[in-house]
């Protein structure tokens, strides 16, 4: 066990850590905080939910001179929601040091951001597009930045933002410290990343698997047309506290959300076509438990830290193994348990094996649930409530009526009627979704897929809006990047 104290952390930050309930440093924190404090460049890789934010946040905050009203730390993150979240975590960590952090992202009014920037934050957490906007308009001064962090670095580089990131880093003095963090870092991306840094130390928290062991991983083999009924049956059986369902496209997310609502589930969708205000309000409702199910594109796959997510469903299997790692990593965070269930159509079985191979983890087969099991699942919830009432509540006032009922009917009939009354029966609304193409590893038109994953740099790194070559998978990827730009502004 490594205490934060032994890492040489100052007392204001120690105080924050105590308030946040952090008792000991996680392995990535233990290994990177000293390097960060020494001013070394670091490529840090550790599993999802293991505290990478504080791993770069603590040394960054330690090095801020709060008497200087200048931006000294800069974090770049791929999505708006993540920029906000990281900014909040840094704010909590810096609570007793009066270090001010400001998130800057697309979809928010420019003049408001400019006012915020004029107020003199010490740390800015930004999405790449909006940050470049400010740099080009000269509405941000990052000449005094001494620490720059790329959170989810592989994703930003993979999205074709390498030139944008270079432009951003060019605007910062060269003697800066640069830190790169992610749960995944394919070799070719790491090589590119290293070109942005000065002889970086590579810290990889060694584990056999890329995924955390506290997530139980399953797959269900289903036909495309069975997916939706299977999903609602599973939701009835699992009755998750909070669940995230990942769909491949925005349209898919909309359709699944509508279908779930039609069947009486409390759910909303999030993707890049929604206004920033809507995205925030959906996410906040989910965080507060006012909706139980969040249906999302990959915009919610990276970095989001929402406590209480017990289940992740890959309604559509993700395109590449990295994406799988990040999606399922929305559960099982900070040592908690979780379940991940991936829907695989028969033609996608080879893709399942590829994911298992790359992530070095195994998904257990889960049988397709029957509607009978789903019904039992719903009734189980009622039974639990009933048992709780029997154990914890005084039911004295109801006994006379109960006895009266039992004179009229046999006991099973009475209890069955009470169960029926209490059980929230699903509306059996018919739901038909527009089919999506299966993902495949090899053969025919999807052939480029694997090559792309394996790391044809040209495909990974060409700039947005400049598709290179006729690779179909690549164009799909670009297609989704167009939406990513919306998403990730
Ligand atoms: N030392 C610690 N002790 C207890 N909780 C911690 C500690 N460090 C971080 N946490 C908490 O663990 C959760 C996950 O942390 P964080 O979001 O930084 O993970 P991550 O490694 O960045 O994951 P991802 O790869 O998904 O981005 C957060 O709620 C954070 O506050
Ligand atoms: Mg993170």
UniProtKB/TrEMBL annotation:
<keyword id="KW-0347">Helicase</keyword>
<dbReference type="GO" id="GO:0005840">
    <property type="term" value="C:ribosome"/>
</dbReference>
<dbReference type="GO" id="GO:0009409">
    <property type="term" value="P:response to cold"/>
</dbReference>
<keyword id="KW-0547">Nucleotide-binding</keyword>
<keyword id="KW-0346">Stress response</keyword>
<keyword id="KW-0067">ATP-binding</keyword>
<dbReference type="GO" id="GO:0005524">
    <property type="term" value="F:ATP binding"/>
</dbReference>
<dbReference type="InterPro" id="IPR044742">
    <property type="entry name" value="DEAD/DEAH_RhlB"/>
</dbReference>
<dbReference type="InterPro" id="IPR057325">
    <property type="entry name" value="DeaD_dimer"/>
</dbReference>
<feature type="short sequence motif" description="Q motif">
    <location>
        <begin position="2"/>
        <end position="30"/>
    </location>
</feature>
<dbReference type="InterPro" id="IPR050547">
    <property type="entry name" value="DEAD_box_RNA_helicases"/>
</dbReference>
<dbReference type="Pfam" id="PF25399">
    <property type="entry name" value="DeaD_dimer"/>
</dbReference>
<keyword id="KW-0378">Hydrolase</keyword>
<protein>
    <recommendedName>
        <fullName>ATP-dependent RNA helicase CshA</fullName>
        <ecNumber>3.6.4.13</ecNumber>
    </recommendedName>
</protein>
<dbReference type="InterPro" id="IPR011545">
    <property type="entry name" value="DEAD/DEAH_box_helicase_dom"/>
</dbReference>
<feature type="domain" description="DEAD-box RNA helicase Q">
    <location>
        <begin position="2"/>
        <end position="30"/>
    </location>
</feature>
<feature type="region of interest" description="Disordered">
    <location>
        <begin position="432"/>
        <end position="489"/>
    </location>
</feature>
<feature type="compositionally biased region" description="Polar residues">
    <location>
        <begin position="377"/>
        <end position="391"/>
    </location>
</feature>
<keyword id="KW-0694">RNA-binding</keyword>
<dbReference type="InterPro" id="IPR014014">
    <property type="entry name" value="RNA_helicase_DEAD_Q_motif"/>
</dbReference>
<dbReference type="GO" id="GO:0033592">
    <property type="term" value="F:RNA strand annealing activity"/>
</dbReference>
<dbReference type="InterPro" id="IPR000629">
    <property type="entry name" value="RNA-helicase_DEAD-box_CS"/>
</dbReference>
<dbReference type="InterPro" id="IPR027417">
    <property type="entry name" value="P-loop_NTPase"/>
</dbReference>
<dbReference type="Pfam" id="PF00270">
    <property type="entry name" value="DEAD"/>
</dbReference>
<feature type="domain" description="Helicase C-terminal">
    <location>
        <begin position="214"/>
        <end position="374"/>
    </location>
</feature>
<keyword id="KW-0963">Cytoplasm</keyword>
<dbReference type="Pfam" id="PF00271">
    <property type="entry name" value="Helicase_C"/>
</dbReference>
<dbReference type="InterPro" id="IPR014001">
    <property type="entry name" value="Helicase_ATP-bd"/>
</dbReference>
<dbReference type="GO" id="GO:0016787">
    <property type="term" value="F:hydrolase activity"/>
</dbReference>
<feature type="region of interest" description="Disordered">
    <location>
        <begin position="362"/>
        <end position="391"/>
    </location>
</feature>
<dbReference type="GO" id="GO:0003724">
    <property type="term" value="F:RNA helicase activity"/>
</dbReference>
<dbReference type="InterPro" id="IPR001650">
    <property type="entry name" value="Helicase_C-like"/>
</dbReference>
<dbReference type="GO" id="GO:0005829">
    <property type="term" value="C:cytosol"/>
</dbReference>
<comment type="similarity">
    <text>Belongs to the DEAD box helicase family.</text>
</comment>
<feature type="domain" description="Helicase ATP-binding">
    <location>
        <begin position="33"/>
        <end position="203"/>
    </location>
</feature>
């Amino acid at each position: 066990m490594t205490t934060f104290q032994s890492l040489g952390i100052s007392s204001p930050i120690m105080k924050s850590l105590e308030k946040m309930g952090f008792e000991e440093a996680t392995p990535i924190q233990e290994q990177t905080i000293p390097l960060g404090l020494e001013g070394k460049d670091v490529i840090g890789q550790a599993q999802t939910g293991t505290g990478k934010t504080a791993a770069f946040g603590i040394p960054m905050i330690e090095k801020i001179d709060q008497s200087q009203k200048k931006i000294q730390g800069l974090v770049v993150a791929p999505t708006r929601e993540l920029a906000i979240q990281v900014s909040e975590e840094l704010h909590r960590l810096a609570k007793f040091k009066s270090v001010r952090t400001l998130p800057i992202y697309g979809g928010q009014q420019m003049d408001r951001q400019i006012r915020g920037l004029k107020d003199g934050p010490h740390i800015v957490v930004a999405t790449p597009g909006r940050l470049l906007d400010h740099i080009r308009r000269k509405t941000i001064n990052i000449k005094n930045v001494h620490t720059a962090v790329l959170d989810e670095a592989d994703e930003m580089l993979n999205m074709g933002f390498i030139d944008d990131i270079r432009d951003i880093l060019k605007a910062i003095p060269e003697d800066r410290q640069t830190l790169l963090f992610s749960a995944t870092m394919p070799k070719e991306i790491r090589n590119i990343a290293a070109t942005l840094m000065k002889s970086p130390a590579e810290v990889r928290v060694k584990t056999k698997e890329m995924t955390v062991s506290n997530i139980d991983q399953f797959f269900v083999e289903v036909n495309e047309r069975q997916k939706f009924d299977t999903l609602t049956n599973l939701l009835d059986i699992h009755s998750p506290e909070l669940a995230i369902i990942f769909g491949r496209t925005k349209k898919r997310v909309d359709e699944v959300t509508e279908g779930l609502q039609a069947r009486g589930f409390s759910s909303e969708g999030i993707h890049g076509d929604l206004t920033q205000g809507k995205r925030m309000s959906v996410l906040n409702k989910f965080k507060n438990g006012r909706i139980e199910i969040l249906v999302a594109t990959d915009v919610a796959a990276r970095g989001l830290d929402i406590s209480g997510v017990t289940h992740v469903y890959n309604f559509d299997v993700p395109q590449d193994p990295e994406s799988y790692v990040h999606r399922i990593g929305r559960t099982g965070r900070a040592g908690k348990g979780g379940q991940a269930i991936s829907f695989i159509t028969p033609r996608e079985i080879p893709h399942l094996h590829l994911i298992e191979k790359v992530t070095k983890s195994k998904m257990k087969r889960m049988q397709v649930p029957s509607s009978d099991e789903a019904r039992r699942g719903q009734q189980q919830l009622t039974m639990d409530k009933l048992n709780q009432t029997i154990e914890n509540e005084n039911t004295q006032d109801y006994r006379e009526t109960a006895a009266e009922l039992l004179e009229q009917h046999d006991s099973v009939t009475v209890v069955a009627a009470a169960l029926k009354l209490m059980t929230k029966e699903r509306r059996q609304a018919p739901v038909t979704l527009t089919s999506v193409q299966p993902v495949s590893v090899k053969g025919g038109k999807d052939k480029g897929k694997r090559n792309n994953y394996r790391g044809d740099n040209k495909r990974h790194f060409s700039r947005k809006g400049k598709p290179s070559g006729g690779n179909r998978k690549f164009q799909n990827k670009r297609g989704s990047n167009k939406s990513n730009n919306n998403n990730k502004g």
